[in-house]
Every structure is written in C-alpha cells, then in structure tokens.
Amino acid sequence: MLDTAATPETSPHIDASSISMDRLETAIDGAARKLLDRQTADGHWAFALEADATIPAEYIMLNHYLGDIDDEVERKLANYLRDIQNNDGSWPLFHGGEINVSASVKAYFALKLVGDDPAAPHMQKAREIILAHGGAARCNVFTRFSLALFEQIPWRATPVSRVEALLFPRWFPFHIEKVSYWSRTVMVPLLVLAALRPKAANPRAIRIDELFVNDPMHDDYRLENPTGSWLGSLLLALDKIAQPLQSLIPSSLTRIAIDRAMNFIDERLNGEDGLGGIFPAMANALMAYRALGVDKDDQRVIATRKAIDDLLVVDGDTGFCQPCVSPVWDTGLAMHALLEAGAESEDGRLSQAGTWLEDRQILDTVGDWAWCRKNVRPGGWAFQYNNDHYPDVDDSAVVIMALHRLSGGGSTHAIDRGAKWICGMQSSNGGWGAFDADNEYYFLNNVPFADHGALLDPPTADVTARCIGMLGQLGGNIDDPRISKAVHFLKKEQEADGSWFGRWGTNYIYGTWSVLSALNAVNEDMESDYVRRAVTWLKSEQRPDGGWGEDCQSYWPNGRHEMNISLPSQTAWAVLAMIAAGEVESDAVRRGIEFLLDSIDGDGEWHEKHYNAVGFPRVFYLLYHGYRAYFPLWALARYRNLVRGNMPRPQYGI
Q1: CATH: 1.50.10.20, 3.20.20.370, 1.20.1250.20, 3.20.20.150. Which one for 52-321?
Q2: Please, what is the end-to-end C-alpha distance for the chain in angstroms?
Q3: Annotated catalytic residue: which of 273, 368, 394, 451?
Q4: 298 flagged as catalytic
Q5: Which residues contact 319 (CB under 8 A, 6 or more apart)?
Q6: How far is CA 265 from CA 176, 310, 322, in A?
Q7: pTM for the whole thing?
Q8: CB-based contact 611:622 (threshold 8 Å)
Q9: Residue boundaries of the structural domains of the chain
Q10: What's the pLDDT tens digit per position in 343-399?
C-alpha cells in the first residue's frame, strides 16, 4: 500500500491518488517513442554535447592559426557566441554563471577574428567587464598558450613547459604516465608547440591589445599557485629561475623529444575520431603538424581535420563545436531507460543497439591504462565512437549492465570480458577512476602548468559506484572482497551532510544517486545510518515544486544552494536514488514523479538549458542534451514498475 498519510510540512502534498497511472503510462509511452525516434539506422544514439564558449571560440582560433578561414561556418559559431553572452557582456563557464575571464577573452578574440566591430555594443560590454576583472593578463595557462601562439603575449607569460620532459624516466617526479589520459593527449602536442613556438598565420592580423590593462608585451605576468601550498610556491620560484635557462638546453635533445612526442601522437591518432577523441588534443595535434611542416595532404592531417569538423553541430544559422561526442554513453543509458519502460520487443531495436555496442568493445588494443595494469586483458568500451587507447571504466560498466539486462540476465562473452577488465582496473584504495588505476600523484597538482586542477584521474565515488552496481547486477554482494573494499572507499568519501560528490555529473545529486543505486544492488542494508543520512539530505534538497536542481556553482565552496530552478534530469537522479533506498512510497518520491509529469510537453519531451555535467570541476562544464530524454523516462518507468509489482526496491545496478 502507498502511504497516504498527511505531511503538513510538505507543500503541495501529493497522495497516492494524485498520480494517475493512466497519466503515468501516457508520459512513459510518449517519452519512450520520442527516444526511439532519435535512434539512428544502425542502432545507436548520439545526442549533442555542449560545452562553454571556449570550444567554438577555439575552433575559430584554430582556423585563423592555420590560415584556413571558413567564413560560413565561423559566422554560425559567432552567432552562437553572441547568443550565450551574459547580459553584463561576459561569457560564463555554464548557463547563468558568472564571468570567466579566460572564456570571455577567447570569445571576444574569436568574434573579432570573424569580423565583429570592437565598437559594437556587445564587444564594448565584453571589453569593459574583462578589463574590470584584471584584463586578459588574468587568463589561465591554456589560454596564455593560445595567445602566445597568436603573438598577443610573450612566451614568458607561460610556465616552463619543456618537451624534453617526455624523456624523463618513470621514477622521476614528473612522467607522462603519471597524468590523466586527457592531460596526456592535450599536453604532448602542446609541448611540441611550446618547443617550436610557431606563429599563427592570423591572415587578418587581428590583435586584442585593448583587453590588457598594461602593455601586453611588457606586463609582469604572474602565475598562480594552483593549490596554495608551500610546494606550489616552491615550484613557482623554480619556474622563474628556469625561464632564462631554457636557451641552454641542447637543440639535439629537443629534437629527440619532439620525435618521441610525435611518435606518441601518431600511435594514438585514432583516425577520423581524433587524438584522444577530444577537441583540445585534436586541435593541438593539428597545429603541431603544421608547425613541423607536415603537408596538408598528409593523411594524418586530413584525418585530424575531419575529426575536428565532425564535432560541429549546426542548426540553421547557428552552431557550436562539441568538446567530444558521447555515442556509447548515450546508447548505454538510453537502453537502460527503454528497457525500464518495457521496450524490449520494440521491433528488435534494442537488440540492434546491443549489437552496436558489442561491436565497439575494445578487445585487441592495449591502451595507456596497461602502464599500471600490465596483466589485465583489454575489454572495455570508449566514450566516443572509437578511442581504443582510452576505454572508459564508467561507460564500460553502464554498457555491461545494459547488455546483461538485454540478455535477460544471462552471461555473454562481451559481458564476461568487460567485467574482468573493470575488475582489473580497481585501484588499491578500493575505488575506480575513469581511465586509469591508482592515478593519485597529487603532488603534480602543484606544478604551475596545472592551474586547471584536473591533471589527474583518481578514484571517485560516482565511477566506483557504477562498478559496484555492475558487480551487484552480475551477482556479487557486499561480502565479495572487491565490493566490500569499494564500499569502504565510498564510506570514506561520504560528505558530512550525507551526500556524495559527483565528479562527472552535477554534482552531489548525481553522486548520491550513483552510490545509493550501487549499494542497493549489492544488498547493503539500506536502513543503515550512512544510507539514511543520504536520504535525509536528498529530501532536504527537494524544491517546493517537487523537483531537484543543483547549479554548477556547487563545485565551489559555499556554492551548494545557488540553483533556483528544478531540472528534469536532476529530479530523475534524485527519484532514482530515493527509490534505490526503499523510498518508493515516500511523499518525496511522489512529488518528484509529479514534477516530471508536469514538466513533460505534449511531444513527450522535457527541456532544460542548464548544464548538468562536468568535465573538470570549476574549469569546464557540459550540457548533455540526452540527459533530459532518457533519465526522466527512466525514473517514471521505474516508479511505475515498482508500484505495479509492489516491490520495495529495484533489482538492477543502476
């Protein structure tokens, strides 16, 4: 029986009779059909992945660096940049956010490159607020590299970044194996550029001197201490000492290091899917090829250019450039939602999706992850269409659970092989990182180059939870040593208020959903104190309209209550989390379901423009356009299934 007791402190109150099962079925059917309509002919889903202004701005800057201007495409990207500009003239890191100087400088520069008049009102407003926040000299390290390539600032404004570091032995404090995959693929071609110091073609000879408070070529550029620790201060001092000594490094040694860097890039070039499958790495690789004089007709250059252009999303007269694509992630999650909705027999389309995923399992390539796990066989899945050197633990767990459910709970070669790879990737502390094991060289966060704070890929609560959930769905329980060690890791990671941090989704709602789903899957006592504290926190965060919403500002201290709107995707996470904790009969869940029913439109869609995920906390945020399509559907269908089946909790790992 659903609890219909009054709850005076909750407004509006929703009792069992207020949720019409007919209305629920109509919403599930409409959303499922809408999602199926988005499936491609070969069986997969691929929704747009939107970042901030920096990626489309960098696309324009790349064209002008190369001298390969595409006025038609750049005009559409410029329209997008103007559309997302804040009213105060700045550009934020996420919708509704405050000014980010680096993003604002890149957006302004890109608009000026495409021909916007500096005297235009939107450019004047941008210039004024950038100057009010210290000017372009306050940009982060990666933006400084871009500006140095365009000769807007001197190279001394960048930290010492020597390509010869690739020759260091592994025991050395810095080694390329000790940083994350995304840092590796972005950094290696960037180090080549820093060594060669090429000059951008910049055919229109555009400068942005007006964005600097002082003369940009003579300013005293200060680097920030990334962590504020004594080690960071020491490394800043060493950087100052090393700056004038760089000319003493033998050119022959630099040449050897550049060759090693290019061998690294060529081996991982990834064809038309691009180096690392991410835009910054692809762009840096293309610029490095140009700096080395590689011909435009070289197949490496052609493939890399196509990989970059394939990231464009153009809709009429506007468009943006994605940081990467997410087809495996979207397909796995869409399958979970549709399986929950009961779409198994829908013309065999989910079987087709399962086949598509199985075909993308990485079985032969021994990627960079093997540097720390030499005896583990490949078996994971990448995030993108192809990225064989960098399979993603999180994606792999989601795919395995989807294939397992599709097979009716049976075991297949793909499931077994993938699960073994994930087990082999468990870190020594019991947790899992996204792409590497035991990537916890935290002292590296002190180097001046790492002012973005995302140099490493340590174990996190959300990825760990996904792996626990997978093991639970495959039959494991809390007594399994691997699982108990992982649960111990999660207990240590729990926040004081009962929530869990979300590394890859925004934020504590995402992390808490991930963990509670996993704990339920391994038969943890969902009445235990630490679980109930998480449930209490979720209830406390529910908004008056019945939904949940969390702003990207929550990644900063004291920023956890900035959101003033509920989002369908985050409401779905909260509902799924509460249901996993046995709260299917609670008023909080009913109110969340009612919010999702109220916010779906007549076409079976939910809408949200606020960012719902994170690339790097406090640095780079994402809007997964697919999240509004499959997570709310998933939550509604799960609620219906449990109520209809009179079951207290779900049986799956996610």
Answers
A1: 1.50.10.20
A2: 25
A3: 394
A4: no
A5: 56, 73, 76, 77, 79, 80, 312, 313
A6: 13, 19, 21
A7: 0.94
A8: yes
A9: 12-41+495-654, 52-321
A10: 876 678 999 999 999 999 999 999 999 999 999 999 999 999 999 999 999 999 999
